[in-house]
Amino acid sequence: MADKIRVVVLYGGRSGEHEVSLKSAASVLRHLDRSRFEVIPVSIDKAGRWQWNDLHAIDRAQAASLPILPDAPEMRLARGPDGRCALVPISQSGAGPLDIDVVFPVLHGPLCEDGAVQGLLELAEVAYVGSGVLASAVSMDKDVAKRLAEFAGIPVAPYRVLTRKAFVRDRAASVAKATEGLALPVFVKPCNMGSSVGIHKVKTWEALGAALDDAFRYDVKVLVEQGIDAREIEVAVLDGETPFASIASELNPNAHHEFYSYEAKYLDPDGARVDLPAKLDAAQMARVRMLAVQVFAALECSDLARVDFFLDRHSGEFCFNEINTLPGFTSISMYPKMMEASGVPYGELLTRLVNLALDRHLQRRSLERTYAS
Ligand SMILES: Nc1ncnc2c1ncn2[C@@H]1O[C@H](COP(=O)(O)OP(=O)(O)O)[C@@H](O)[C@H]1O
Ligand SMILES: [Mg+2]
């Protein structure tokens, strides 16, 4: 037991994707190699409380979505007596402190995937799976991510950025800016969300105002983006000596959904059909895999990311849509499925991710922090 690597699986989180995380984490806990890793399940509830959950109870329940029990001991991350990062109980609970080796954040969305949790883990000086603060933050911001991709020569759909401040000050001017040079339909998106929350397909200019009002409920920055008649192609990237791009998949939202909406993603069991591999010719497949690695590098990601593209049905060109630095990990999620189809089974994938995190942490710890002349 003593030589096992202690992995904290961190899940839940204060984002709209809390419930997705509970499912992702259930699947990660099932697939982590228990012969190598001692697994500690730590949840973050919607109020932001961190709790240490009972692994045996979770194992016994075999639930597809992890429950967060109110009486699980509340914990915080702190430096243990020997200087290592530890889980420390907040109240008298009989639990901990417990030294930990690595954190696997199985969290999605704002405050979870956007560099906030990653910053906390940096301060705690603990190894963690996934992109660091910079890549997490820029990848979550759909505007900045696209700007960096464009700068690296990767095509993106034309879009305009509106701020809530400007929208509130002069609604007409914002609407005029949003429509200039774009043709219907357009997509209105909160800049930093996920799971299609707050996204609207706008088919008449009269409908634009209401769509913007709704999107500004979720973010102070909103994108108005050229709608493209496109196929939706995704690629999973796994870091290594050189980043590895999986075989691409295609998501075909069911025709009765206008686009790949929240309903199509999570509520409708027939919301989308997946083709894995995507039905692409060899040149298209090679191109999208190469673009995925280029995006991963341009955004300075680490360990893993799912990179989503549109394949324009008219021009035949790919454009980068968005990147997820902590993609879904449920039993039906595309990231593990694409890796599996590319020769990396789920359990081995998790082992590789944990090892990547430990290696990176070692390298960073060896850097000089002070300057002695
Ligand atoms: N420019 C666009 N053209 C066509 N469809 C789009 C466009 N932008 C978004 N969509 C549709 O909306 C869905 C969600 O948008 P996306 O930018 O991927 O946000 P999220 O982070 O919420 O997944 C996409 O999967 C796609 O179906
Ligand atoms: Mg998406």
Automatic annotation (TrEMBL):
ATP binds at residues 142, 187-189, 195-196, 225-232, 321-322. Keywords: ATP-binding, Cell shape, Cell wall biogenesis/degradation, Cytoplasm, Ligase, Magnesium, Manganese, Metal-binding, Nucleotide-binding, Peptidoglycan synthesis. Its main location: cytoplasm. Signal peptide: none annotated. Binds 2 magnesium or manganese ions per subunit. Its EC number is 6.3.2.4. GO terms for biological process: cell wall organization; peptidoglycan biosynthetic process; regulation of cell shape. This is D-alanine--D-alanine ligase. It comes from Bradyrhizobium frederickii. The lineage of its organism: Bacteria, Pseudomonadati, Pseudomonadota, Alphaproteobacteria, Hyphomicrobiales. The gene is ddl.
